Amino acid sequence: MRDQIFNNQSDISDFCFDESVVAVFDDMVKRSVPGYEAMIQMIGLLTRTYGQDDSNYYDLGASTGATTLALALNNQCKNVRFIAIDNSTDMVSQCQKNLVGKVNNLEVVCSDIKDICIENASVVVLNLTLQFIDIEKRADLITKIYHGLNNGGALIISEKIHVDDKSEQARLTDLHMDFKRANGYSELEIANKRQSLENILLTENSETHLKRLQQCGFRESTHYFQCLNFASFLSVK
Known about the structure:
The structure is a single chain. With 237 residues, the chain is of the alpha/beta class. The protein contains eight helices and seven strands, in the order H-H-E-H-E-H-E-E-H-E-H-H-H-E-E. It has helices spanning 19-32, 36-50, 66-74, 89-99, 135-148, 166-182, 187-197, 206-215, and strands at 56-60, 81-86, 106-110, 121-127, 149-160, 220-227, 230-236. Helix 4 (89-99) links the parallel strand 2 and strand 3. The longest helix has 17 residues, at 166-182. It starts with 18 loop residues before the first helix and ends with a strand.
């Protein structure tokens, strides 16, 4: 279904992953996030490298299941379990519908990812998820993931980021807006969505992400992908 959620003049409330968003989410993310399909493809390829036999693969903030599906399609290991977690009941329901019959050994859980236990993990993914977590709680989540990863396991993070140089950031923002316009969003839709996300999606710069990963225990972290103001990081335990 095509995303037209913000195509009206009504009062704009804070963004939430409710039934209306779930219905158009796949269209929304492809038309709003530059490089989204490449992000998903790279997560799949990294799974081939870092996945381990007899382990768990976690998709934290699974939304409609695209990342979990990429993990499963690229899995080359034996006796693995796929755990998709989201705190939206509507998202969980759609994720289950999208993955039934496509992913074996699947568990879809409705929970706050800050409350779940990570254990025996070889791959953990936060794909456009950490940005919705309170900044002061992000380190605790990353530390928990680190301790739940097996040696040689990987944490993959994709995020919207910003740069500190104001002119460079303005240029990236303008290019992102052009990307949305090219994908059919009107000026009203762009402005309304930006207002809706203003207090919900909290970005950080690349240096902050890499420093936090190191402080949480990871000794090997790489900023391996970026398309405009969206970036992906790989950390190996």
